[in-house]
């Protein structure tokens, strides 16, 4: 199947000398965007900059106790962080990537408050050894360039996923921003005063390199602090950030049965095929705690369960995709939603309260269940991510949530960001759809082109030089229906704004399920009958204007064309009225 062939190709790409182009140029005046050749990836790992090679991107061993990422907190309205982008290889020969602070903290959790400014001084220490392919242009030429005008396998940028921040240069701009090996680039990302407190994340977003970079482990969490102000139930609870990542399977076995398309890790502790040894998660028996789970996988869908002696435990959901559950009524107050499992797509986040097992429980495990991703999809198998342990030898610190409620850094109360969205007049209705086409219809194992298309338009592979597929205006509220016309799951992600779920497969969801998301799964089409779909409200009423993107967040699909640009024009100024004279 096309998807299985793609997962095998990526594994070969990162461990052998096979190279495959992603897609053809968008026009005669625009350059090719392509996947990196494995020879280039191998060259990166053997040519570290400033000694940051073999010792960079350190990874724990299988079965290790989970350690929390380093926590960095803003002060006086700002957080300044120096990050180095580095690479190395692991024992299986896989190429790793990571963001590291000068004092050695890998993928720190960045804590800000609404209204804060996050300043990141990013230094790209990934270099290309002699003999590697020359630079390949990946960004548009001309006035839109942000950073370098050309890019290659060394290139990086950062996307501040889920944040409602500006898509301008030096902020959350990913279409034209390129930082090459040896270069330094400063980000200044200002969070709005009404940013929902919750879990977000950061990762590279160079088109054609996104999957390789995220599979390599270059990702970390962002926490907008203050969630106790909308959900008092978490105040004073110990909080834990858990980051699920994926990577290629050592030896590149053909996925199927127990063999997953991608291995998983939890806070970098590998859960690797064939042993599938889980990590050890330290807990205090019987104590309630606040878990913030990020699925930072490039490609893997997860379905989270917590099981004590074979019985699934209640998970009290506090927030999804950074927004408190139950807050869609516009009051800003959250409501707990209790579930026995939580589907978290690639890039999705779930924050929930758990009660640790009593000392009498013999086996307590955190599991992701198998996902039916469709006949062309990945093999996302059941895996035990962690065994919960109350043994003193497994103890690890967990930072508590603030015990008292607090507002934004400004101290000024603000109107909830999404107030009144579901009753606002709809200014436009659009239908979009996911689709796939084999480049060679006679070769089902060959490369696939991936598309996201506005209904009625011609399917077009993404190119940074493409014009916007959609143009709208600040202040609009649009209803989008996104269909899946492919034989595998796709994960719709919108940059810069959240959207509100209104319907699935044409059926209105109950009011208490109309949550806000930035990433949502659209199940696969079964080959006949209606196309699966979600209907959402897009909220353009904030301060966001400019060009940004929407795409499938299975990053192999995005890298192979399943992305498009939207342009939000500034709200027209009211015509001036001359005073009568």
Q: Would you mind describing this structure in some detail?
A:
With 581 residues, the protein is mostly beta strands. It has three domains: 219 residues, Immunoglobulin-like (Sandwich), CATH 2.60.40.420; 163 residues, Cupredoxins -  blue copper proteins (Immunoglobulin-like, Sandwich); 149 residues, Immunoglobulin-like (Sandwich), CATH 2.60.40.420. It contains four helices and 37 strands. Strands 12, 13, 14, 16, 19, 20, 21 and 23 form an eight-stranded mixed sheet that branches. Strands 26, 27, 29, 31, 32, 33 and 35 form a seven-stranded mixed sheet that branches. Strands 15, 17, 18, 22, 24 and 25 form a six-stranded mixed sheet that branches. Helix 1 packs parallel to helix 2. The longest helix is centred in the first third of the chain and has 14 residues. It is globular. The C terminus is likely disordered.
The termini sit apart by 76 Å
CATH H-tier superfamily of the largest domain: Cupredoxins -  blue copper proteins
CATH architecture of the largest domain: Sandwich
User: Could you name the CATH topology of the largest domain?
Assistant: Immunoglobulin-like
Class based on secondary structure composition and strand pairing? mainly beta
Helix content: under 10%
Q: Any idea of the CATH class of the largest domain?
A: Mainly Beta
Strand content: 25-35%
Please tell me what the overall shape is: globular
Q: Outline the biggest β-sheet.
A: 8 strands, mixed
Q: Give the assembly state of these chains.
A: single chain
Q: Given the structure, what is the number of helices?
A: 4
Return Rg in Å.
23 Å
Count of strand segments = 37
Low-confidence stretches: 11-34, 46-54, 129-135, 575-581
Whole-number mean pLDDT: 87
Question: How many structural domains does the protein architecture include?
Answer: 3
């Amino acid at each position: 199947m096309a998807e299985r062939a793609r997962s095998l190709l990526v594994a070969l790409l990162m461990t052998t000398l096979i190279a495959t182009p992603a897609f053809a140029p968008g026009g005669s005046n625009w350059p090719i965007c392509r996947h990196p050749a494995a020879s280039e990836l191998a060259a990166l790992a053997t040519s570290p900059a400033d000694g940051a090679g073999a010792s960079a991107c350190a990874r724990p061993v299988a079965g290790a106790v989970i350690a929390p990422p380093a926590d960095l907190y803003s002060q006086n309205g700002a957080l300044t962080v120096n990050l180095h982008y580095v690479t190395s290889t692991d024992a299986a020969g896989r190429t790793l990537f990571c963001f590291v602070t000068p004092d050695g903290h890998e993928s720190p959790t960045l804590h800000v408050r609404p209204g804060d400014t996050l300043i990141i001084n990013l230094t790209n220490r990934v270099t290309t050894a002699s003999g590697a392919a020359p630079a390949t242009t990946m960004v548009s030429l001309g006035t839109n360039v942000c950073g370098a005008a050309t890019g290659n396998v060394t290139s990086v940028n950062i996307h501040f996923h889920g944040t409602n921040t500006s898509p301008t240069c030096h902020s959350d701009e990913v279409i034209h921003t390129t930082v090459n090996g040896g270069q330094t680039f400063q980000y200044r990302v200002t969070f709005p005063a009404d940013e929902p407190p919750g879990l977000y994340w950061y990762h590279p977003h160079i088109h054609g390199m996104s999957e390789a970079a995220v599979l390599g482990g270059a990702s970390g969490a962002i926490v907008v602090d203050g969630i106790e102000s909308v959900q008092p139930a978490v105040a004073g609870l110990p909080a834990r950030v858990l980051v699920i990542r994926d990577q290629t399977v050592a030896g590149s076995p053909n996925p199927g049965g127990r063999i997953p398309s991608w291995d998983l890790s939890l806070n970098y502790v590998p859960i690797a095929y064939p042993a599938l040894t889980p990590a050890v998660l330290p807990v205090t028996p019987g104590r309630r705690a606040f878990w913030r789970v990020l699925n930072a996988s490039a490609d893997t869908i997860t379905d989270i369960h917590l099981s004590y002696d074979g019985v699934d435990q209640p998970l009290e959901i506090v927030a999804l995709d950074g927004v408190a559950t139950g807050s869609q009524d516009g009051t800003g107050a959250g409501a707990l939603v209790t579930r026995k499992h939580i589907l978290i797509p690639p890039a999705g986040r779930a924050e929930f309260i758990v009660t640790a097992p009593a000392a009498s429980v013999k086996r307590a495990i955190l599991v992701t269940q198998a996902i039916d991703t469709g006949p062309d999809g990945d093999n996302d198998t059941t895996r035990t991510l962690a065994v919960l342990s109350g043994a003193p030898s497994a103890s690890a610190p967990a930072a508590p949530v603030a015990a008292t409620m607090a507002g934004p850094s400004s101290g000024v109360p603000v109107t909830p960001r999404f107030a009144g969205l579901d009753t606002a007049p709809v200014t436009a209705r659009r239908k979009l759809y996911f689709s796939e086409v084999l480049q060679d219809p006679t070769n089902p194992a060959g490369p696939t082109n991936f598309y996201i298309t506005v209904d009625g338009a011609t399917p077009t592979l993404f190119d940074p030089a493409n014009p916007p597929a959609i143009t709208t205006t600040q202040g609009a509220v649009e209803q989008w229906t996104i269909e899946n016309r492919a034989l595998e799951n796709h994960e719709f992600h919108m940059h810069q704004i959240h959207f509100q779920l209104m319907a699935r497969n044409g059926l209105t969801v109950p009011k208490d399920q109309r949550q806000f998301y930035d990433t949502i799964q659209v199940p696969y089409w079964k080959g006949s009958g209606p196309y699966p779909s979600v209907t959402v409200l897009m909220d353009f009423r904030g301060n966001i204007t400019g060009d940004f993107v929407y795409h499938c967040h299975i990053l192999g699909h995005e890298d192979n064309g399943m992305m498009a640009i939207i342009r939000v024009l500034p709200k027209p100024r009211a015509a001036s009225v001359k005073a009568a004279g």
